Amino acid sequence: MGCRGGTRLPLVRRLCFVVVLLCASCLCSILPYANAKRTPPPPPSVKPKAPPSPSPSQVVPAPVPPYPALPVRAVCLGGWLVTEGWILPPLFDGIPNKDLLDGTQVQFKSALRKTYITADQGGGGAVLANRTQASDWETFKLWRINETTFNFRTSGGQFVGIGASDGIIVATATAPALPETFQIVRCPFDKNRVRIKAANGYFVQGIATGEVIADYGEPTRWSDWDASVFLMTKVGQQLQGEYQLCNGYGTDKAAPVLRDHWSTYIVEDDFKFIASSGLTAVRIPVGWWIASDPNPPAPYVGGSLQALDNAFKWAEKYKLGVIIDLHAAPGSQNPWEHSSSRDGTQEWGTTDANIAQTVQVIDFLASRYATSPSLFAVELMNEPLAPRATLDSLTRYYRDGYNAVRKHSPTAYVVMSNRLGISSANSTELLPFAGGFQGAVIDVHYYTMFNKMFDNFTVQQNIDFVRTNFSGELAAVTTQNGPLTFVGEWVAEWKVPNATKEDYQKYATAQMNAYGQATFGWSYWTVKNANNHWDLEWMIKNGYINLKG
Ligand SMILES: *[C@@H]1O[C@H](CO)[C@@H](O)[C@H](O)[C@H]1NC(C)=O
Ligand SMILES: *[C@@H]1O[C@H](CO)[C@@H](O)[C@H](O)[C@H]1NC(C)=O
Ligand SMILES: *[C@@H]1O[C@H](CO)[C@@H](O)[C@H](O)[C@H]1NC(C)=O
Ligand SMILES: *[C@@H]1O[C@H](CO)[C@@H](O)[C@H](O)[C@H]1NC(C)=O
Ligand SMILES: *[C@@H]1O[C@H](CO)[C@@H](O)[C@H](O)[C@H]1NC(C)=O
Ligand SMILES: *[C@@H]1O[C@H](CO)[C@@H](O)[C@H](O)[C@H]1NC(C)=O
Predict the structure, then answer these.
(1) Helix, coil or strand: residue 482
(2) Which domains, from first to last, does the chain contain?
């Protein structure tokens, strides 16, 4: 990379400065031979005592000890550089047709025939309209082109489009092009009553034989007698992640929205507050596109790297450690919005090129921040989901990612996340592997939320579950000579209705006591949130959590 970007950013400049210093000291040792008249360098005795160097060729400066002591007490800066709609809903407010974002699942029922548009067999062949019940084959995921124009993806992964014969609709394309593009025209007085205009300019209708064809050219009065009118139903949970935000606005309009968000949502005062509250580190989720700043691929917006630079500057000022967390990997390592999945599909790790691209992102981040004393850890990936993320691809990636960090930093911890969603929940599967790396950390996340089992738990049952089950699981992962352990996400929130402040205080304390066993530490999810109990600043300011007592 060299020092080409010297005018860009302070850290790059600092890196260049270090290189210049190193070069200068090389020159100093060479110059006395080249130019005898030169004043000799000052004696080295002014330097503080350094440990004996293992080899004279070593030019790496002695590592600056990272700020926090183990175990850390950290907070996640969620919803900042990787957006999630529920953390800050207003970010999405300015999107036109904001209920039709990428990944939104829709079903279309003919107003006239009362049958659903179906990708027969889930896709790969005919599109029909002869079923009266809707399930997977009748459900389509939107890919948004703009506020009115979309592709429809079948449950099998193909795209709906106009086939070779005139206007007949099929689901055979593996990638969308013009024939797979449809306009959704909404009725002015009922937005879920729609017509679907195909690329040939005609509206789609289901005909009596069950076939679906784009050949309807008449205007409409939106009545049930119009064969081109469909009742649109949205099903499942809508994704509201970085992809949906950027593509929902379109990159040009998303840019000012996100730049404003990056510079106002988390500011220096937050770092000051975090440090003064007794926390010692921040875990910062980032997306893979930050490595191509300032020109990330569409639809992502450039400029988030400046925000991360600021975070390091403030962390240094307030003596906080930074755990950089690759929260969204290319292709998405889980189907959720926080991995920036476009439509809920999970493609990370399915090719060698994809893994290599992810390693490049880690290399970029480690190289950029290696000289900051606040670079405490690099988390190679958040929440990979089994079985789609295989143990084999994950450990190959963790090995290469670890080496990419070590290439730049001898001291930063390297965090490896356990896979989620293994039916037999083998939380120790990474131990033999991770135990082989100096400075490796295993990340586990504990919530009494995302499982039906917790739906009717009482206050005491939640507390007991933390003290017994999570505590036991953490103890099983925390081994004598194995990797360090990190409860990288937890929250004092549950399914208990109408719990009192005292209940929340007890729950938070029980968790901090249990997760205090983690040898690397813990991190609360999140620092700021539209929901009070998920907002650690709110919890501290309102006396629900006290880290100084
Ligand atoms: C719909 O049409 C397809 C193809 O002709 C046929 O295989 C299927 O059984 C039909 N389904 C219903 C519910 O009529
Ligand atoms: C959306 O895209 C379609 C197809 O490219 C285009 O015809 C239409 O004008 C666009 N609409 C808007 C609002 O940009
Ligand atoms: C979980 O993984 C560990 C480490 O590979 C292995 O020793 C153990 O047998 C596994 N447990 C189960 C239940 O598969
Ligand atoms: C929780 O309680 C409700 C109401 O009693 C019940 O319908 C539901 O099945 C319970 N859920 C679980 C997971 O036990
Ligand atoms: C939680 O721990 C208790 C006590 O050891 C045990 O009976 C129960 O099965 C555990 N629950 C789960 C879901 O593992
Ligand atoms: C919780 O509080 C709400 C509003 O005060 C009340 O309507 C509801 O019945 C309460 N729920 C329980 C389980 O006590």
Answers:
(1) coil
(2) 72-91+240-541 (3.20.20.80), 104-235 (2.80.10.50)
Substitution candidate for ligand 4 out of 456, 495, 496 with most atoms within 8 A of CB: 456
The pLDDT tens digits for 408-438 are: 999 999 999 999 986 656 899 999 999 999 9
Q: By 3-state DSSP, what share of the chain in percent is helix, strand and coil, each rounded to 5? A: 35, 20, 45
CA–CA distance, 261 with 84 (Å, rounded to integer): 12
Q: How far is the CA of 457 from the centre of ligand 4 (A)?
A: 10
Give the closest residue (by CA) to ligand 1 atom 8.
130
Instruction: For residue 185, give the ligand nearest its CA.
Output: 2
How far is 224 from 183, CA to CA, in rounded Å? 20
Q: How close is the Cα of 469 to the center of ligand 5, in Å?
A: 6
Residues of the chain below pLDDT 70: 1-66, 422-425, 549
Ligand (nearest to CA of 178): 2
Closest ligand 3 atom to residue 429 Cα is 2
**Distance separating alpha carbons of residues 544 and 528, to the nearest angstrom:** 15
CB count within 10 Å of CB 153 equals 28
> Which two structure tokens, joined as six digits, stand for 405?
């960090």
Q: How far apart are CA 549 and CA 547, in angstroms?
A: 6
